Amino acid sequence: MTTSQPIYLPPPSQKGSVSLEEAIAKRQSVRDFTPEPISQSQLSQILWAAQGISNTRGRYRTVPSAGATYPLEVFVVCGRNCIEDIGDGIYHYDLAHHSLTLHHKGDVRLELARAALDQEFIYEAPVDIVICAEYERTAMRYGARGERYVHIEVGHAGQNIYLQATALGLATVAIGAFHDEAVREVLRLDKQYKPLYIMPVGKPA
Ligand SMILES: Cc1cc2nc3c(=O)[nH]c(=O)nc-3n(C[C@H](O)[C@H](O)[C@H](O)COP(=O)(O)O)c2cc1C
What we know:
Number of helices: 7
Distance between the termini: 27 Å
Bound molecules: flavin mononucleotide
Structural class: alpha+beta
């Protein structure tokens, strides 16, 4: 069901059946996905790993951030019948409430794939996680060096997505090859957000 009300995701679990060492050993980039939907609890886990609140220190996140300036914003591009009980659309991840807010209705995966050099697995995966940055949050504190810090930080978030997907038996690939402006237009992003990574997530074929 698609609604403009926030979609509260199930709380993330902090116990899993795959060890960290196994997840690191098994992690690999996968570019073949089945069209099978993923569950809300799987999506919950992926978003929490990417940028959720860690339970250890209250407002801190699962990913480190230079000076805790937190420049990253996460969007979810979802196809029709691709996430359990969630309609097609572009959603913003509200990490404070661990919920999704509908940003734009409709399946834009094909447009997103076109904006990324026709990497067709972006369209084939049920879900694409798009990590964007507002550089100013970090640049305000660190000046020109802030840009470097933002790029390092998105790598941390991407690796967490890889490892969490692996631990759940899901698959992903980090995509950096795309036209920034085209992706911004497909996602209807506000001017201050720059897309840095697209990560399709789904069951490996
Ligand atoms: C910054 C960055 C950008 C990448 N961009 C793409 C991409 O646009 N398309 C793609 O298929 N893979 C992309 N990859 C994935 C790499 O191709 C992949 O990590 C590499 O081949 C090593 O394979 P592995 O991840 O399975 O160890 C990217 C990886 C990184 C770190």
